[in-house]
Amino acid sequence: MAAMFERINVLIQYKDLLRELVVRDVKLKYRRSFLGYLWSILSPLLIMIVMTIVFSQMFDRGIDNFPVYLLTGSALFEFVNSSTHMAMYSVLDNSALLKKIYVPKYIFTLAKITSSMVDLVFSMGALLLVMLVTRAHFSLYMLLIPVVVIQIYLFACGLGFLLSAANVFFRDVQYIYNAFTTAWMYLTPIFYPIEMLDKMEWVRWIITHLNPMYYYIQHFRDLVLYGRFTEPVIFWGGWLFSFVVLFVGLFVFKKTQDKFILYV
Amino acid sequence: MSEEYIVDVENMTIRFNLASEKVDNLKEYFIKLIKHELMFQEFLALKDVNLKVRVGEAWGLIGINGSGKSTLLKAICGILKPYRGTIRTVGTIAPLIELGAGFDMNMTARENVFLNGTVLGHSRKFMQEHYDEIIGFAELENFQDVPIKNFSSGMQARLGFAIATMVKPDILVVDEILSVGDYQFQQKCYGRMNEMLQGGTTLLYVSHDINSVKDLCDHAIWLDHGVVKMSGPVEEVAAEYMSENR
User: How high is the pLDDT of residue A85?
Assistant: First the structure.
């Protein structure tokens, strides 16, 4: 118990460093670009338009508002995809610093996930815009969006810790994870309805039981697109995935972090 | 009794594994696992090192390249964990880190002051209060909003030194960084370090320049291949070291 308080104290001591790192990422991302932060809204919009043109003919049956359906899915997936990919390199990229001075190493991983989170909030702006244009229904359930955001943040943190630690010891992780996320994207109902997989019973089973993204996206769509509270299975399942992945990630990171210095 | 020591290193051994150091991909890992080659080729960077430093003392670490000086400093800073033995330190440690290690080259001097300061564990508010002092000491008043990738190495070193020594840390760790920068700035740095020593800061100083060690330090520890060859007052150790390496 005392050790835990000690850790929380250290986090409080370094909270300003976390802040500086996040501000740096956000600032540098669009430095020297003409439209700057506007790209965080424009880029998901452009992708959404392309995808809508391509896929809306294919999957239109069964989906009321395809642009919103697509954007809700892709915003969350894009967050997990980009944040974990960046987090994977967080320890390695700061190796010069870690060799010289004692800093809690997880700060760098946490900073990457958090700065991606800023992007997610921007892409919510894009979502809002599309909802206004397509005259979607706004409901009070949208006030519960932070619940999904917290769930997915904890999940991404856990995955980020796991990947950044693994990448220190085995650089193969980068390539494996690239392939993994591609498969993961197609196995997540982002641009197709889950009902489409009724004929492929086992694929559907895998997605609805083992893919955390299905839970978060379903939850998010229930709140935004369908204006209702999500099913208990989706709600609690999401929390379960978040905490299990977070604890596994923290555990692996904590167990291995003293050896990082010998491998970076 | 041990309370009076600010740095207390007792029977410390640091071990590296040379064999597994090269395995950083899964293929090699599995091949070695199958061939039972994942063995340990151990290398002791430091063997049973003892170092006891009292508040206000200045210790020079001397020895040839690869003798374990930097390893000892890293262990004291908490970067490396000892394999055997214990390290206790009291109070804040400010390491003077190598050029550029704490800087982001794409950011301006102003942004880097805050980034580097928070890396050292200071709060943003604290850095705000001391910002002018840092820029003043580094003599960079006209370059505050220039990305530091456009700085000369001397300018970067000045900024780094100014940030690290702006607070009065309990322990200042300096690892061979003052070779950059012009003569005038080096004198300024020595001045600042002497000032801090007078104020009660404890100094751990690594340098190949035995004369600067003699000037700054009152004690010295001589490491040779990970073993303490001699430690004590700086005059005696330095004299012995010089006669050995002649």
Answer: 96
Instruction: Give Cα separations from B78 to A54, A98, B86 (angstroms).
Output: 55, 10, 11
Residue B23 scores a pLDDT above 80:
no
Residue A100 and residue B97: Cβ atoms within 8 Å?
A: yes
Instruction: Inspect the interface and report whether the beta carbons of B27 and A13 lie closer than 8 Å.
Output: no
Pairing state of beta strands B5-17 and B219-224? unpaired
What's the pTM value of the predicted model, to 2 decimals? 0.87
How many A/B residue pairs have CB atoms within 8 Å? 77
Tens digits of residue pLDDT in B36-95: 666 566 788 889 999 999 888 899 998 888 888 888 888 888 888 888 898 988 888 877
pLDDT of residue B100: 56
* Residues B25-36, mean pLDDT to the nearest whole number: 74
Give the list of residues 6+ apart from residue A26 with CB closer than 8 angstroms, or none. Answer: A115, A118
Q: How many helices and strands in chain A, by DSSP H and E?
A: 13, 0
Residue in A14, A18, A20 to test binding to B, most B beta-carbons within 10 Å: A20
Closest approach of B186 to chain A, Cα-based (Å):
21
Q: What is the CATH number of domain B1-92+210-246?
A: 3.40.50.300
Contacts of B17 in chain A (CB under 8 A): 262
Q: Where are chain B's structural domains?
A: 1-92+210-246
Tell me the C-alpha distance between A196 and A184, whole Å. Answer: 17
Secondary structure in 3-state letters for chain B: CHHHEEEEEEEEEEEEEHHHHCCCCHHHHHHHHHCCCCCCCEEEEEEEEEEEEECCCEEEEECCCCCCHHHHHHHHHCCCCCCEEEEEECCCEEEECCCCCCCCCCCEHHHHHHHHHHHCCCCHHHHHHHHHHHHHHHCCHHHCCCEHHHCCHHHHHHHHHHHHHHCCCCEEEEECCCCCCCHHHHHHHHHHHHHHHHCCCEEEEECCCHHHHHHHCCEEEEEECCEEEEEEEHHHHHHHHHHHCC
Residue among B27, B119, B124 minimizing CB distance to A101: B119
Chain B residues with CB under 8 Å of A20 CB are 114-115, 118, 124
Q: What ipTM goes with this model?
A: 0.80
